[in-house]
């Protein structure tokens, strides 16, 4: 009908009929109803009405029928459809439509409410025009709307007229989109009025539509202000070599935070639909398929020959001494006068310890990795299993208080906790030089720390606090940290089972926003006392508040402000030499009181959404719990939500770009003990020193006659720390020529992790990979005998050490530097790419390259890969992809993992190549080095919504298991390849046959039941697609929907047919509530 000119015909009929001497309403009323139905579906209806002069005619009819409710109702419906075009709505405003509507919209009444509803709907549509909103401000309509809201709220006690009350608020919301509208709203005491009228309605579900709009208005009108920081730049500055020192950061002032102006003109949104195309997808086939030239002189690659001794060395050279590269030079822990001697019962890595590790790996074989694949096992059963290739947490939870791993009581632990010499603040964050001869504190303090370390439980796998102390002294930080975090020194033992996703408390976000508004309108109730700051000196004199600290490795807390007795606003530090990337936090709190709910608000987060809105909890480590035999990071917190707040980035920092909005993560914590010291973190921390300690213990735990484990220095970082490179394979069976040749011809696998320092979950996955590869699991043996693993477990040590979330010490994302890295400024990326290039030049390109990452806005574990055809198809490129030849094996590994790993899902995998990712490891290794199986593996910070772990948050055990499952996936991938040797196939068949029906499960062709999800994200962490009850920026203005106006017209027709009067009472009004 519209395409045949029906709209024009109806509008012309309206004009002709209305201009007769005595308009026939028996024709006009059904015509208005028909116009309303047709107009909502014609995107050019408003413009057509304007051109045919139907706007003027309908306005004249409206004025003539102010006292005739039925005729007036129909006129309002027609005007509502005309106003769906912003430009037409602006024209109606010019012609006095709003003044007319305020004659119709009266204070509370039970008469003609259908007309009042239509009038408020029309007014809300008109106010979407900025010119109309400015007109409303100039004519004082903000005050009028607030009075109408108060009147209807006061009298509509039964909630019969919620739709009218909601649309009145929508009118205010549209006006508040302008700065002048917000100023008028504040001047009219709008914040106080809406706060007082709504605070008692938060839990009333029937008033939910009203409360939602009130929240949006309050957040719009809350005055924007700078963060309570002296500067937006990081509190830590690193002088990058070769760059000039910049001017000191300018102190932020209120002038930097003026709200945006009203200059934007009305834009007509009713034009033809524009086809949305993902401009970020790479559609240049040459860029997708060509291999660029080497980015450095070929002779430079020779330096990496020393990192691949397995390709050229003799059998004797393979038997290198453990730690030759990383432990040479510098401070050795041998000069630690408390490191036990050969006769000491606490000897670290003694033959007894090594034998015990080997014995535990023998025990692990009984529960091999193959028995833990995704095969319908319940989460409870899975959680009770031992992790592959790692020591179980023996008796950590079940042995009772003060019990060590052997089940014997720790000597006098309870008495020790009560001794006068005990200073939990000092013990919970010990100095790096504690227990060393150069330690300057009193002898009593040294003895306390020594006594403390003697109580260290032996059940924490691959961890030793003495070695950690020694390694920590060699770790270099920008802030020159002198203290260590107790959890990193003492170690972590995972709880026996994963914790469930937190059920979101209904209305918590509403409550928090109202509390923020209450601070604004009742500032005298806020303490507002700084209790910790990296920027400003403060007096630690208050005894009635928590004590904070973050000056330790990976720590990140910049400022803490006490706002109420048990509530604190916290600000995290930006990445070093940066003004952004505030997400990772890790800090210490002391002076806790048990059974008291403390609330923490981290007010300078940057991500627009977070898994904290969908069941994720932060992590907590209690020092007292650890000393009582439960050294565990656990998920904690309740009443958690994440929402946009009123803080904004300064105009000076933004530099003309859109200014950053900040978000608040709020959560409540009840600490387990009084006078405890607890650590809180975004996710399970894993520090650089932890890694270096772990690698040393792993190296000393392997049998060097069977396992080739070599750790060496890839390069030195900008901060002066060593970036470790690990090589793992099996020793040749003998020094015969054939065995040595088989050794040298083994294909390579390359795995990297932690390029983004805040993604600590990637390190836990890497930990599981490393421990599994050196274990005695039969799958691990097969992998070592058939592959050489090159592993860079931490690509950004400096970022990890200094508490960054995403960047290096230069303030740049190292995963955007792979196209042309420089040795002086991006050394770890430069040499990682150089090593890959060297392997490629010698004919040893890795079978698989995978970079482990963490993901903050999705659940489960998944892979990103690269495909030309899928990218072109998704972009609907005109280039025919049928003629392009592509190896489709890039999908095989994720399909295998989908069937093996409980946490993995194929449905979240993507194989698109985006322009914005052209310089990432995944894309560069795929494009420049020709590795078709080049991946990023993303692990959620949160947990799973599918599979055996559905409804559970990830613990470190599940992340480590994923690392081991990845290794199993590599073996199955090789078994499915056409180049798989008969010897490996026969050994694998024998192994798999021993595990029930797993042979059929793994060797059959993976079905294509799972297809790639195709997200259109523009960064590593795409927007969260899950629905949230109260979104940070809801724009669900239902007054403009087709169905609502249709429903009103149909309802009117129904009542008309039933012969009911239009003067409906509360009963009928309630019936009209959507």
Describe it.
This protein is an alpha+beta fold and 1074 residues long. The chain has a domain at 688-876 and 887-993: Zn peptidases (Aminopeptidase, 3-Layer(aba) Sandwich), CATH 3.40.630. Helices cover 37% and strands 10% of the residues. α6 runs parallel beside α9 and α30 runs antiparallel to α37.
List the helices and strands and how they pair.
Elements: H1 6-18, H2 25-39, H3 45-51, H4 54-64, H5 69-82, H6 86-94, H7 97-104, H8 113-126, H9 130-138, H10 141-155, H11 162-175, H12 179-187, H13 190-198, H14 208-221, H15 285-289, H16 315-318, H17 351-366, H18 379-383, H19 413-418, H20 424-428, H21 443-454, H22 465-474, H23 486-490, H24 508-521, E1 529-533, E2 547-549, E3 559-564, E4 567-571, E5 586-590, E6 597-605, E7 619-622, H25 623-627, E8 634-635, E9 638-648, H26 651-654, E10 661-670, E11 678-681, H27 688-701, E12 707-716, E13 722-730, H28 737-744, E14 748-753, H29 760-773, H30 778-786, E15 788-792, H31 797-801, H32 827-841, E16 849-855, E17 861-864, H33 868-874, H34 892-900, H35 921-928, E18 934-940, H36 956-975, H37 982-993, H38 998-1003, H39 1042-1057, H40 1066-1071
Parallel strand pairs: 4-6, 14-15, 14-16, 16-18
Antiparallel strand pairs: 1-3, 2-5, 3-4, 5-11, 6-10, 7-8, 7-11, 9-10, 12-13, 13-15, 17-18
Helix pairs in contact: 1-2, 1-4, 2-5, 4-5, 5-8, 6-9, 7-8, 8-11, 10-11, 10-13, 11-14, 13-14, 14-24, 22-27, 29-36, 30-36, 30-37, 34-36
